[in-house]
C-alpha cells in the first residue's frame, strides 16, 4: 500500500493524540446529555419542587433574576417545570426507539436469514408502509385511538417502525453477503453460529446507531403531536405541553413556548451529535 | 477484454427494450404500493370498533334510523366484507374518497380546495432547501467555511420544525413585524413557513450532498481530472456534482413525504390554509374518512414522486439505464 | 527539463520525503523505484501539486523548462502548479481503466485539458479529441468519443486516458504505477505505447515498485527507500549490479526462481472433478455457460495452476470445487468420496478438508474481529487454553509474530492479512487448499513471500494446492500441472512445462504478455 493511500484512508494506527482529539469532539454533547439524564432522574438537584405550585400573582412574567426563564399562564416557574418535565418528555423517546429497534432487529434477521419468500413479503410490506410520511401515520394512529399520551407513543412508534424494519432487513442482507460470512461457510461453521457470531452483531450495531439518532426524532415528533393538542392535557410538566400552552401568547409571552422549545432543541442536537459520532466510530471500525 | 465481451457490454446498454422493461417494473411496483395502501386503509377503518355509520355521521349526529338505514344501503355497508373491500379499492379509482361528516361534503372537494396551498408551500420549501444545500456543499469544500457549515448542518437537521416555525413567528412576525401574521401579500405569507420547512431539509440534503461529493472526490477519476488542471470548484461543477446528485435527488424525493407531514405543523403555527388544517380538524373530530383519504393521498403523492425521481436519476446517471443490474 | 531539487514532504510533524532531487529531460524515461511506503507517489504528486490535505511539500528549487514554478525554498502548492497540469506535465494513474468519469462521455473526458486551459473552443476540442483517440489506436474514434466509459473495453479506456494525457501536447508525463493492476495483455499494450512516446520526445517519470516492468521502458532509475534516495544510475547498471540492499531485494523479487515441488506420481488423488458445467442466468434472461466440461485431478503434495484471462471462468471453477455452487452437470469428488453431490447438511462436517484463500483478504476477514479470533474460527472445538496455543502456533507457521494476533485486519499490511487468511485456512487441517488469485493485490516482495509460503506448506504438509491466477509467470514458478481456461472451457492441460512448450494460441497469448 502506498503512503498516499495509507494517509488518505486514515489508517487505524491511531496515536494517543488523535484518540484524545476524537473524544474531545464529542465531549460537549456528552456533557449536555449527562446533565439532561441527571435532570430526568434527580430533578431535585437542579430545582425546587415547591416552585411547581401555581401562583396567580405571578402569571406570565418575563425572565428575571427571580424566575430565570419566566413564568407561565398559571404563574408557575418555567425553569422548574422544564427540569421536572425532562424525565417524562424523554421517556417517550426511549420507549419508542427501544420497541422499534427490537422489532426491527428481529424482523430484519428473519428477513435476511429466513426463506426467500419471507424476505420478499417483508420487503413489500415495508415498502407500502414507507410510502407514508411519518407524521401522517402518527396522526392517523392518534385519530383512531383517540387523543392521549399513550396514543402518541403508539402513534410515533408505528410511524418510525417502517424505517427500522427496512434497515434491519438491509443490514441483515448486507451481512449475509459479506466475504467473511461465506468464508465461515467454507470453514464449515454451522448456520446458527454464523447468524449469531457474524450476522447479528453486524445488524445490531448499525441499528443501535439508528436508535440513538432516532431518539431525537421520536421525542420531536411526540412533542409536535402534543403541541398540536393531541397528547397530554394542559398543565402536565412536559415540554410539548408547555409549548402548546404558550401557543396563543407568542406575541406578548413568547417565553412560555420558546424556553421549552430551546430545551428540546439542545437535547435533540446533543443526541444527534453523539449519534453521528458513534456512527463514524463504528464505521471506522469496519474498515 | 476480448472484443466479444466489449460488444456484449455495449449492446446491453441503452437498449430500448430494457428501458421499457424498467419502466414497466417501476409502474407495477407503484401499483402494488397503492394497492397495499388502500388495503391498509380499509383494514384500519374496518378494525375501528363501533358502527361504521356512526363513524361516518360523527358522534353528534341526530339522524333518524331511516336515514341511517339509507346511508347503510348507499354505502354498501350491508354487503359481505370482501365485497366492501373491493368497493373500497374501486372507489378511490373513481375519485370517490367518501364524505366528511364535519363539513358534510365530499372529501375530494375538500382536497381540491386545500391542496394547492400546501403544494405551493412544499414546492417553495423544497426549492429553497435545494438551493441552500447546493450552495453550502458545493462552495465550501475546504477550509474554515466548510467547518462552520459542517457544524451548523446537524443543528439544522435536528431542530424541530414546529419550534423553528414558532421561533421565526415570534421573532420576525410578532417581534420585528417584517412578516405580519395576518394580512400581507401571498409572498410575505409564504416566506416564514417556507423557511421553517426548508431549514431541516437543507441540513439533511446538504450533509448528503457533501458526503456524496467527498465520496466522488475519492474516486480515481477525480484525481485524473485534477491532474488535467481543474481547480476545486471546477471539479465540483464538471464532475462530482453529477455523481453526488443521484443520491441527493433520491433523498429529496423521499423527503417530499416528510414535507407533507411538516406542512401540517407549520400550517398550524402560521394559521395557513391547507391540508394540514384539514388533517387536524379531522383528527380532533374523529372524521376518519378524511384522515384515511389524506393518508391514501399521501401514498399517491409518494408513488408519483418516486417515479419522477427514478426518471431523473436515470437521466443523471447513464449507468442506471441498463435493463438489468446496477454498476 | 523538469528540475526538482531538495524536495521535502511533511505530514504534520512527520517527514515523509527527505531532500529528494529528480530531473527528467525530454525524450528520457526516469523510473522512480522503491518498496511500498518509500515516498514515490508523494514525490510524483508533489511535482503535480496534487498532495492530499494535511500534507505539504517544500522544494529548494523547482523549475520546468527553465521557468521556476515556485520561489526557491517555498511550498509547492496546488494553485502554483495548476497551469502545468494537463498541458505541460500530464498524468496517468494506477488503474487507468477506472480513471474516466463514468458519467461523462469519453470524448468529453479526452478533450477536457483543452477546455480547462482554454486551448480550444468546444467544437474544436471535440474534433481534436476524436483525432487523439485515433492516434492511440482506437477503432471508430468518432463513435467511441460519443460513448460512455462503460460501453468500451478496459483496454480501450486505458488508451483513452493516454489520449487525454497527450492531447494538449505536454512535454512531460508522470505515470504512477500504471501497469500494476493490469492483466498481462493490457500491461504489454501500455508499456509499448509509453516506450513509443518516449522515443518521440516525451519526458516520462515512471513510478513503480516493479523493477522488471521499469526495465522495459526506463533509461535511468532512482531508487527510494524510507523517503530518501538510496541509489541511482542507468537502468542496466542498477539491475545487473545493485549496490544497496533495498535495490538488491527489489532485483531479486523481479526475477523469480522456481518453487515447484517433487512430483510424486504415486501420491493419492485428493481432488477430482469430472465434466463440470455451470449454467448461469443473466439479468437479461439468457443463459450462459460459465464453465463447460472442465475436468481435473490433483494429487496430494502437488500444485495445479488454473490460468486464463479475466472472465475465463476460473473463479467459477473454484466455487464449484468448494461446493459453493452446484454444478449444472458433472461432479466433484474429494479423496474419492462424493463432494458436490452431498447435501449441505452432510457436507458441512467435511468442509474442513478443503479450504480457500481469496484475492482480497480484507473482504473475507471480519473487520471487527482480531486476527486471532478469525484464525480460531477455523479450529475444531477445543478448550480455551489449547485454542490460544493453537492460534499462536498457526501464526508462527505462516511467518507472523504471535503478537500480531491481537490486531484487526485494518491494522495489518496486505501481505500480513493474506497470511492471516492462510493461517485460518490451515487451522482446519485441510487436505486441499484453493487459492484464488492470492497474490494479485500484493506488491512483488509480498508476492514472492506468499508464493514461498504456499510452496513450503505444500512440501511440508503434503497439501494439495490449486492456484488460480491470470499471471502465468507466477504459476510457472510454483505449479506442477497447468490447466488453461478460455471462455469456460479447457484448452490445454498437463504438466506445466509441457503445456508451455506446446503453446496453443491462448497459452501463447498469455505467455507473450507475461514477460
Brief description of this entry?
Chain A has ten helices and no strands. Chain A has helices spanning 3-9, 16-41, 78-113, 116-130, 134-145, 149-176, 179-187, 191-227, 239-245, 255-286.
Structural features, described:
The complex is a heterotrimer of chains A (287), B (327) and C (515). Chain A has a single domain (26-36, 67-286), classed as MetI-like fold, CATH 1.10.3720.10. Chain A contains 10 helices and no strands. Chain A has helices at 3-9, 16-41, 78-113, 116-130, 134-145, 149-176, 179-187, 191-227, 239-245, 255-286. Chain B is mainly alpha-helical and 327 residues long. In chain B, 78% of the residues lie in helices and 1% in strands. Chain B is built from 13 helices and 2 strands, in the order H-H-H-H-H-E-E-H-H-H-H-H-H-H-H. Chain B has helices spanning 3-12, 16-47, 52-57, 65-74, 81-93, 107-139, 143-158, 161-175, 186-218, 220-227, 232-270, 275-284, 288-316, and strands at 99-100, 105-106. Chain B has a two-stranded antiparallel ribbon with strand order 1-2. In chain B, a hairpin with a 4-residue loop joins strand 1 (99-100) and strand 2 (105-106). In chain B, helix 7 (143-158) packs across helix 9 (186-218) and helix 11 packs antiparallel against helix 13. The longest helix of chain B has 39 residues, at 232-270. Chain B is flat, with a radius of gyration of 25 Å. With 515 residues, chain C is an alpha/beta fold. Chain C folds into 3 domains: 1-88 and 172-179 and 202-253, 3-Layer(aba) Sandwich (Rossmann fold), CATH 3.40.50; 95-169, no CATH class; 269-367 and 414-514, P-loop containing nucleotide triphosphate hydrolases (Rossmann fold, 3-Layer(aba) Sandwich). A 6-stranded mixed sheet of chain C has the order 7-8-9-3-10-11, with helices on both faces. A 6-stranded mixed sheet of chain C has the order 17-18-19-14-20-21, sandwiched between helices. In chain C, a hairpin with a 2-residue loop joins strand 15 (329-334) and strand 16. Chains in contact: A-B, A-C, B-C. The A-C interface holds A 1-4, 6-8, 11-13, 178-180, 182-190, 198, 201, 285-287 and C 11, 16, 36-42, 45, 52, 54-55, 177, 322, 324, 348-352, 355-356, 358, 360, 363-368, 374, 377-378, 408, 410-411, 413-414, 424, 428.
Amino acid at each position: 500500500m502506498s503512503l498516499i493511500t495509507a494517509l488518505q484512508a486514515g489508517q487505524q494506527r491511531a496515536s494517543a493524540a488523535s484518540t484524545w482529539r476524537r473524544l474531545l469532539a464529542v465531549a460537549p454533547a456528552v456533557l449536555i446529555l449527562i446533565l439532561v439524564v441527571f435532570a430526568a432522574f434527580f430533578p431535585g438537584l437542579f430545582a425546587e419542587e415547591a416552585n411547581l405550585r401555581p401562583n396567580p400573582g405571578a402569571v406570565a412574567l418575563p425572565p428575571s433574576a427571580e424566575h430565570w426563564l419566566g413564568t407561565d399562564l398559571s404563574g408557575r416557574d418555567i425553569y422548574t417545570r422544564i427540569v421536572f418535565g425532562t424525565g417524562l418528555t424523554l421517556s417517550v423517546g426511549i420507549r419508542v426507539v427501544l420497541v422499534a429497534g427490537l422489532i426491527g432487529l428481529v424482523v430484519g434477521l428473519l428477513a435476511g436469514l429466513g426463506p426467500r419468500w419471507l424476505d420478499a413479503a417483508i420487503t413489500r410490506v415495508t415498502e407500502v408502509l414507507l410510502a407514508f410520511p411519518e407524521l401522517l401515520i402518527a396522526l392517523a394512529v392518534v385519530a383512531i385511538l383517540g387523543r392521549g399520551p399513550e396514543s402518541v407513543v403508539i402513534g410515533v412508534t408505528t410511524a418510525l417502525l417502517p424505517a427500522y424494519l427496512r434497515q434491519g432487513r438491509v443490514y441483515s442482507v448486507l451481512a449475509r453477503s459479506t466475504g467473511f460470512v461465506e468464508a465461515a461457510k467454507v470453514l464449515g461453521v454451522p448456520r446458527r453460529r454464523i447468524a449469531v457470531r457474524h450476522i447479528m452483531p453486524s445488524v445490531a450495531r448499525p441499528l443501535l446507531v439508528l436508535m440513538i439518532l432516532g431518539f431525537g426524532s421520536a421525542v420531536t415528533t411526540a412533542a409536535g403531536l402534543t403541541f398540536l393538542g393531541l397528547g397530554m392535557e394542559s398543565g402536565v410538566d412536559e415540554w410539548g405541553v408547555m409549548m402548546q400552552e404558550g401557543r396563543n401568547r407568542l406575541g406578548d409571552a413568547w417565553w412560555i413556548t420558546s424556553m421549552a422549545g430551546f430545551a428540546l432543541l439542545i437535547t435533540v442536537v446533543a443526541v444527534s451529535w453523539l449519534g453521528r459520532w458513534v456512527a463514524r466510530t463504528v464505521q471506522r471500525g469496519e474498515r | 477484454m476480448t472484443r466479444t465481451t466489449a460488444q456484449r457490454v455495449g449492446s446491453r446498454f441503452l437498449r430500448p427494450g430494457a428501458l421499457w422493461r424498467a419502466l414497466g417494473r417501476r409502474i407495477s411496483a407503484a401499483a402494488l404500493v397503492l394497492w397495499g395502501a388502500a388495503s391498509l386503509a380499509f383494514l384500519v377503518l374496518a378494525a375501528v370498533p363501533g358502527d361504521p355509520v356512526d363513524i361516518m355521521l360523527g358522534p353528534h349526529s341526530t339522524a333518524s334510523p331511516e336515514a341511517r338505514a339509507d346511508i347503510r344501503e348507499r354505502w354498501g355497508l350491508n354487503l359481505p366484507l370482501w365485497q366492501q373491500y373491493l368497493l373500497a379499492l374501486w372507489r378511490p379509482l373513481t375519485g370517490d374518497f367518501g364524505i366528511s361528516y364535519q363539513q358534510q361534503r365530499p372529501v375530494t372537494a375538500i382536497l381540491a380546495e386545500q391542496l394547492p396551498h400546501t403544494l405551493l408551500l412544499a414546492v417553495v420549501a423544497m426549492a429553497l432547501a435545494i438551493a441552500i444545500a447546493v450552495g453550502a456543499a458545493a462552495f465550501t469544500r475546504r477550509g474554515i467555511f466548510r467547518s462552520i457549515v459542517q457544524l451548523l448542518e446537524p443543528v439544522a437537521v435536528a431542530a424541530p420544525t414546529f419550534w423553528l416555525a414558532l421561533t421565526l413567528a415570534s421573532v420576525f412576525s410578532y417581534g420585528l413585524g417584517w412578516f405580519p401574521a395576518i394580512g400581507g401579500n401571498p409572498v410575505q405569507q409564504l416566506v416564514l413557513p417556507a423557511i421553517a420547512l426548508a431549514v431541516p431539509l437543507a441540513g439533511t440534503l446538504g450533509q448528503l450532498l457533501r458526503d456524496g461529493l467527498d465520496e466522488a472526490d475519492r474516486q480515481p477519476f477525480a484525481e485524473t481530472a485534477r491532474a488535467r488542471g481543474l481547480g476545486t470548484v471546477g471539479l465540483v461543477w464538471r464532475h462530482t456534482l453529477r455523481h453526488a446528485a443521484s443520491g441527493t435527488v433520491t433523498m429529496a424525493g423521499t423527503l417530499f413525504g416528510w414535507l407533507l407531514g411538516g406542512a401540517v405543523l407549520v400550517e398550524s403555527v402560521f394559521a395557513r390554509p391547507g391540508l394540514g388544517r384539514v388533517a387536524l380538524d379531522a383528527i380532533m373530530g374523529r372524521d376518519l374518512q378524511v384522515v384515511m383519504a389524506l393518508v391514501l393521498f399521501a401514498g399517491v403523492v409518494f408513488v408519483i414522486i418516486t417515479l419522477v425521481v427514478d426518471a431523473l436519476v436515470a437521466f443523471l446517471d447513464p449507468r442506471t439505464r441498463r435493463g438489468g443490474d446496477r454498476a | 527539463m523538469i528540475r526538482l531539487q531538495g524536495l521535502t514532504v511533511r505530514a504534520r510533524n512527520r517527514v515523509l520525503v527527505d531532500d529528494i532531487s529528480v530531473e527528467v529531460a525530454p525524450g528520457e524515461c526516469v523510473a522512480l523505484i522503491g518498496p511500498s511506503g518509500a515516498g514515490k507517489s508523494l514525490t510524483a504528486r508533489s511535482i503535480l501539486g496534487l498532495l492530499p490535505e494535511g500534507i505539504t511539500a517544500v522544494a529548494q528549487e523547482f523549475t520546468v523548462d527553465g521557468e521556476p514554478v515556485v520561489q526557491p525554498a517555498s511550498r509547492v502548492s496546488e494553485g502554483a502548479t495548476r497551469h502545468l497540469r494537463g498541458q505541460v506535465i500530464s498524468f496517468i494513474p494506477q488503474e487507468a481503466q477506472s480513471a474516466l468519469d463514468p458519467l461523462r462521455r469519453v470524448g468529453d473526458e479526452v478533450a477536457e485539458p483543452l477546455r480547462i486551459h482554454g486551448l480550444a473552443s468546444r467544437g474544436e476540442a471535440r474534433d481534436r479529441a476524436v483525432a487523439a483517440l485515433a492516434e492511440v489506436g482506437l477503432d471508430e474514434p468518432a463513435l467511441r468519443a460519443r460513448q460512455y466509459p462503460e460501453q468500451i473495453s478496459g483496454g480501450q479506456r486505458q488508451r483513452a486516458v493516454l489520449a487525454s494525457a497527450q492531447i494538449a501536447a505536454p512535454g512531460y508525463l508522470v505515470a504512477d504505477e500504471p501497469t500494476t493492476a493490469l492483466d498481462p495483455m493490457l500491461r504489454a499494450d501500455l508499456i509499448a505505447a509509453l516506450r513509443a512516446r518516449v522515443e518521440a520526445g516525451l519526458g516520462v517519470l515512471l513510478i513503480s515498485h516493479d523493477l522488471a516492468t521499469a526495465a522495459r521502458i526506463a533509461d535511468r532509475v532512482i531508487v527510494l527507500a524510507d523517503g530518501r534516495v538510496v541509489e541511482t544510475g542507468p537502468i542496466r547498471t542498477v539491475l545487473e549490479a545493485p549496490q544497496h540492499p533495498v535495490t538488491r531485494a527489489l532485483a531479486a523479487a523481479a526475477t523469480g526462481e522456481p518453487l515447484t515441488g517433487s512430483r510424486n506420481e504415486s501420491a493419492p488423488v485428493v481432488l477430482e472433478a469430472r465434466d463440470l458445467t455451470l449454467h448461469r442466468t443473466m439479468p437479461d434472461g439468457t443463459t450462459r455457460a460459465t464453465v463447460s466440461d472442465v475436468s481435473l485431478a490433483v494429487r496430494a503434495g502437488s500444485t495445479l495452476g488454473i490460468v486464463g484471462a479475466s472472465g475465463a471462468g476460473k473463479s467459477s471453477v473454484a466455487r464449484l470445487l468448494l461446493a459453493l455452487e452446484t454444478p449444472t452437470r458433472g461432479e466433484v469428488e474429494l479423496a474419492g468420496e462424493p463432494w458436490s453431490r452431498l447435501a449441505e447438511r452432510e457436507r458441512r462436517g467435511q468442509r474442513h478438508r478443503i479450504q480457500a484463500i481469496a484475492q482480497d483478504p480484507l473482504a473475507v476477514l471480519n473487520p471487527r474481529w482480531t486476527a486471532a479470533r478469525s484464525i480460531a474460527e477455523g479450529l475444531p472445538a477445543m478448550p480455551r487454553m489449547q485454542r490460544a496455543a493453537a492460534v499462536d502456533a498457526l501464526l508462527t507457521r505462516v511467518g507472523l509474530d504471535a503478537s500480531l494476533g491481537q490486531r484487526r485486519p485494518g491494522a495489518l499490511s496486505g501481505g500480513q492479512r493474506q497470511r492471516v487468511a492462510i493461517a485460518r485456512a490451515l487451522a482446519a487441517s485441510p487436505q486441499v487448499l484453493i487459492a484464488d488469485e492470492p497474490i494479485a493485490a500484493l506488491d512483488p516482495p509480498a508476492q514472492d513471500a506468499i508464493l514461498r509460503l504456499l510452496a513450503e506448506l505444500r512440501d511440508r504438509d503434503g497439501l494439495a494446492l490449486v492456484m488460480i491466477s491470470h499471471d502465468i509467470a507466477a504459476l510457472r514458478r510454483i505449479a506442477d500441472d497447468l490447466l488453461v481456461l478460455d471462455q469456460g472451457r479447457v484448452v490445454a492441460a498437463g504438466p506445466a512445462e509441457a503445456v508451455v512448450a506446446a503453446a496453443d494460441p491462448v497459452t501463447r497469448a498469455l505467455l507473450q504478455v507475461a514477460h
